[in-house]
Amino acid sequence: MDGEPLVRWHWIGDHLGYLGGLAADHAVIALVPVLVALVLAVPLGLVCARFPRLYQPLAAVFNVVYALPSLAVFVVLIPYTGLATMATVMIPLTCYALAVLLPTTVDGLRAVPESVRQSAVAMGYGPWHRLATVELPAAVPFLIAGLRVAAVSSISLAAVGALIGRGGLGYLFIDGFQRTFPTPILAGIALVALLALATDLLLVLARRVLAPWASGAAR
Amino acid sequence: MNWLGWISDFLSDPAHRSGPDSIANRVLEHLVFAGEALLLAAVLAVPLGLLIGYTGRGVVLVTALTGVARALPTLGLVTLAVLLAGVGDAAVLLPLVALAAPPLLVASAEGIRGTDPDVRDAARGIGLTHRQTLFTVCLPIALPTLLAGLRTAAVQVIATATVAAYAGLGGLGRYVVDGLATRNFPTTVGGALLVVLLAVATQLLFALLIRYASPPGTRARRTHPMDKESI
Amino acid sequence: MTTRLVRTLTAAALVLGAAACSSSGGDPLASGSGSAAAKDSGAKTVVVGSANFPENVLLASIYSQALKAKGVKVEEKFNIGSREVLYGQLQSGSLTVLPEYNGALLGYLDPKATAAGSEQVNAALKEKLPAGLAILDSAAAEDKDSLTVSQDTADRLGLKTIADLSAKAGELAIGGPPEFKSRREQQFKDTYGLTFKEWKPTGDTTANALKDGTIQVGNVFTTDPRIVQLKLVPLADPKNLFSAQNVTPLVNKAGVDATASAALNAVSAKLDTAGLTALMKRVAVDKEDPSAVAKDWLKTNGLG
């Protein structure tokens, strides 16, 4: 680090387009897996809420998945999905997001008080009608709480993909490290944090719109 | 791809039997990193969390702070710390503490906030000071929540400590990173498997701890109310 | 319903990905990947890869821009791993061109190889390379492995060559990239009779670790500007343990035509060690972008 300033501000100014491009790449790599996981978590969560016996082993499996070191999973996938490809990074990120979203979905679907469910039955609601108008809306605050955790950790984890050639803003960390150059590393950390906070803010707003009754209930 | 073959290759490699690259040594390094990070994070976060939970002040600040801390990428923090502080314990501890502190802070605050206000009032009513109420009444009730936060932090730290190997530090990440560099899949897979085993063992340990830490009066409520009412 | 959503999401991902690539179009570091390939998927795209250290990124950038200047469609996959990882990708055709170092490549293909001079090494390489791969012309530029020590250590132990280490090696810790130990441990024993106290995988921090004293001996590349910056001393190698390391394009034959080969050979004809070290100083010390430095060099040499 001898003589190297902590931040070369002009470097940041000179590279705004480059940083923006990496941030966009990062957002895709990190957030598309979360959306895919959401699409998978809802039907899977429904099945699990109906068949609790299935849920226990599945929850155990996803607990293990969550503990897998991301770098190792990327490496093991390379022979199948290629080095430096989006799929190699996005498939594990989808699994991590699903590991967070499945339990929150199940909790959300179970959160409907039995009395409310019985009332819906008494009003003549069929199972699908009940699902669409009672159970799913009740699960929304839980789903969004899960999405917030999943999205933030996905954005942070995606950077590790840089070690196998596809990590969006993570490239700034290895580039800065290799060249003893803290400026790109700091810029990368700031942009990752900004991306995460912006996503989080969007999800909080989404909760206000989709489940206005729940502000404060499910943090 | 022969997974069992990889694992047996990994275990039978003489370099993994003894010396600095032995499995025992790498596991120990990993546990020491993770343990130190958790301890440091707990010392920083738990007292603050208890205070916030009890007084109800600073909740917004904590939510914002933990949000930012969660969003910090570990790889970025590790590379920055190595550039600024050199290869060493500080470089791996700083990012791991940043990772472990938010769930601990949230769990300790939520645990205390979750105690029944009537219970607190009763404690104050029989003449306990605030300090006594916090430590003898609220803390035991909050302990399972706190331990659950500690479990989340521990599992995250154990899984993430692998990244430190990129910057030349020890632990089980060495196997993962060195295996990638030399295209030696047995080493990578063996290292990953050990990390998972450690994480699962940690979860089991905490499951037991949480079970025994629950005060008898609250233990029954821990089971999910919906568990028995299958639809 | 689920499949349709997945499909929509995938499409959205592709669109966003393409936008991400094109939005960085005005920048010197922009790869121009994707966009070139998307316009005309019929023409063959040359995929230039690079190993995970800055000089290799710089060389790959020079290759890539030299190819583009001749109208070749290029996709860049830089900084993606070590030789062990990249070689497999080149064989499978996922990568077409790699900036290589002839001696290191030979050592990888044939760990027992003894060839040390540039021409011997290239002759041996041509025998060892599988049918699908080929090397093009070597540049004069060399980036050799070295055993390097700090000025302090050199003065204290009176070190000038690797042979001088023989009495002290047992007390010294040696560091290098993670793959250094498995590649070299036996060679140090056989050639110089050296057995080091400990091997530390110091990776990209090897030069800094020498200065910190974490290690006393390190594997530092001879074009590393930190040798000058941190006052390090590369030890001479009288027994040629480290072979010639000329910068040489390694290609997947099916992926490069005559135009591409000519463009890469023209780069090799102009690139020498002093020139490469000067470029590396701009990248590693002045923190200029490898692609901008590559562009300047190509322009100066009439190749851009």
What does this structure look like?
Chain A is mostly helical and 219 residues long. Chain A is built from 9 helices and no strands. The model of chain A has no long low-confidence stretch (mean pLDDT 89). By secondary structure, chain B is an all-alpha fold. Chain B is 77% helix and 0% strand. In chain B, helix 1 (3-12) packs across helix 9 (185-213) and helix 2 (23-55) packs parallel to helix 5. Chain C is α/β, with parallel strands linked by helices and 304 residues long. Chain C has 2 domains: 2-142 and 246-300, D-Maltodextrin-Binding Protein, domain 2, CATH 3.40.190; 147-234, Osmoprotection protein (prox), domain 2 (D-Maltodextrin-Binding Protein, domain 2, 3-Layer(aba) Sandwich). Chain C is built from 13 helices and 10 strands. In chain C, helix 3 (54-69) packs across helix 13 (290-300) and helix 5 crosses helix 6 (118-128). The longest helix of chain C is centred in the first third of the chain and has 22 residues, at 2-23. The chains are: A mainly alpha (219), B mainly alpha (231), C alpha/beta (304). Chain B: It is a multi-pass membrane protein.
Could you estimate the helical fraction of the residues of chain C in percent?
40-55%
Shape of chain C: globular
CATH homologous superfamily of the largest domain in chain C, by name?
A: Periplasmic binding protein-like II
Query: Biggest interface and which pair forms it?
Result: A-B, 51 and 46 residues
Count of helical segments of chain C?
13
Broad CATH class of the largest domain in chain C: Alpha Beta
N→C terminal distance of chain A: 42 Å
